[in-house]
């Protein structure tokens, strides 16, 4: 099939490259001319395992091309993969989606996360929400847990589902509104679970329990499952923050009191402050203190800084007068209030404390004796509980963790 993809961000570029890998002929369009020029040259700006190789494959065999614009006419289906950021009141900003829909001349497939009821306003539109985890996007597209397709036209729904046939994934065929709600319901449930485990971690600290043992006892229950039970400084990224706000706005408009979701959002807003409060209890007054951060992206495996809890912690530290130094494998430029260093060792130079804020696997393999020798005070707060306790303490660090 000839597939058009509008938008060359995380979702659009992954969708385009993976559909080309599955044998379709794909044209990916974006209004950013410099981005399209780079992609045409095989330069992928996203840190996404396997994506650069798939783009090179598609360009090489001629099944993938990139063009500038926001409309395509020489395709069988137009997949809309443009941003829908949160507006001032939490509702999704649909201006980019509406621009594309106003120009589309072929059947439109909405991959962008849109408010429930959006597709119903555009006769013939198909709802096909994405469930791609940053850092695992290629894997999630090619080996998905499910494909959800919503449409009023059953024939068209089956046609869109057939585009994914080679993934051999279970297919859920439903109406547009239900398909749109699946995406929000899934993401917001994950947000609830993450906020819940962060509160349990705080309870563990206050009661003298160990979050690792508690989480292990929970995850072995099939009704709960193993995912999203790791505590941390909060959840962020491009999906959960805006999707929770959007679903809350939808609930309010439908006169539904979604108190559990409100509590999850409130709990998450509190997490960066809780990290700083706990650090302050260890270090004292943060004014003039030098603090080293390990990790700035919202999670490991991506270069995405959107709504990163690490940046929220850094902002609070800077507001308190701390001198903030940071190292992240995927971040090279300084951020407001943060001096970005080239190595973890440089981020540890003469600091009063180190904070691990992103769960990059390589942090567990750092030269801890060297880092301890570089610090002013060998104190490390592992907010993600990813460091090897014995190695870190043997190197001379005093280790503070979450939920213990």
Structural summary, described in words:
- By secondary structure, the chain is α/β, with parallel strands linked by helices.
- It folds into 2 domains: 2-174, 3-Layer(aba) Sandwich (Rossmann fold), CATH 3.40.50; 175-404, Rossmann fold (3-Layer(aba) Sandwich).
- It contains 14 helices and 14 strands.
- The protein has helices at 10-21, 33-40, 51-61, 95-103, 137-142, 154-162, 176-207, 211-219, 240-253, 259-283, 309-319, 344-348, 368-374, 389-394; strands spanning 2-6, 25-30, 64-68, 77-80, 108-110, 126-127, 147-150, 171-174, 290-294, 323-327, 339-340, 353-356, 379-382, 398-401.
- Strands 3-2-1-4-5-6 form a 6-stranded parallel beta sheet, with helices on both faces. It has a 6-stranded parallel beta sheet with strand order 11-10-9-12-13-14. It has a two-stranded parallel sheet with strand order 7-8.
- The N and C termini lie far apart (54 Å).
């Amino acid at each position: 099939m000839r597939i058009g993809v509008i938008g060359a961000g995380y979702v659009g570029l992954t969708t385009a490259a993976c559909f080309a890998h599955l044998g379709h002929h794909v044209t990916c369009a974006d209004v950013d001319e410099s981005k399209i020029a780079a992609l045409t040259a095989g330069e992928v700006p996203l840190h996404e395992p396997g994506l650069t190789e798939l783009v090179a494959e598609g360009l090489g065999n001629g099944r993938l091309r990139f063009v500038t614009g926001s409309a395509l006419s020489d395709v069988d289906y137009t997949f809309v993969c443009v941003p829908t950021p949160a507006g001032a009141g939490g509702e999704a900003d649909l201006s980019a989606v509406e621009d594309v829909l106003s120009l589309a001349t072929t059947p439109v497939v909405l991959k962008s996360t849109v408010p429930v009821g959006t597709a119903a306003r555009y006769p013939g539109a198909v709802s096909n929400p994405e469930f791609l985890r940053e850092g695992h996007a290629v894997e999630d597209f090619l080996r998905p847990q499910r494909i959800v397709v919503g449409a009023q036209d059953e024939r068209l729904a089956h046609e869109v589902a057939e585009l994914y046939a080679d993934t051999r994934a279970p297919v859920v065929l439903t109406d547009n509104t239900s398909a749109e709600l699946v995406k929000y319901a899934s993401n917001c449930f994950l947000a609830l679970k993450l906020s819940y485990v962060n509160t349990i971690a705080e309870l563990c600290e206050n009661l003298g329990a160990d979050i690792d043992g508690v989480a292990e006892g929970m995850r072995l229950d099939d009704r709960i499952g193993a995912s999203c039970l790791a505590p941390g400084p909060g959840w962020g990224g491009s999906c959960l923050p805006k999707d929770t706000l959007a679903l809350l706005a939808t609930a309010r408009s439908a006169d539904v009191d979604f108190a559990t979701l409100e509590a999850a959002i409130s709990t998450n807003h509190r997490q960066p402050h809780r990290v700083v409060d706990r650090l302050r209890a260890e270090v004292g007054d943060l004014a003039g203190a030098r603090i080293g951060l390990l990790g700035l992206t919202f999670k490991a495996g991506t270069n995405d800084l959107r709504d990163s809890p690490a940046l929220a912690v850094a902002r609070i530290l800077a507001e308190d007068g701390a001198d903030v130094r940071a190292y992240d494998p995927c971040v090279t430029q300084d951020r407001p209030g943060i001096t970005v260093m080239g190595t973890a060792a440089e981020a540890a130079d003469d600091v009063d404390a180190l904070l691990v804020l992103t769960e990059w696997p390589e942090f567990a393999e750092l030269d801890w004796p060297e880092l301890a020798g570089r610090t002013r005070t060998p104190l490390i707060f592992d907010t993600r509980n990813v460091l090897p306790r014995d190695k870190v303490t043997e190197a001379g660090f005093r280790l503070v963790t979450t939920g213990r």
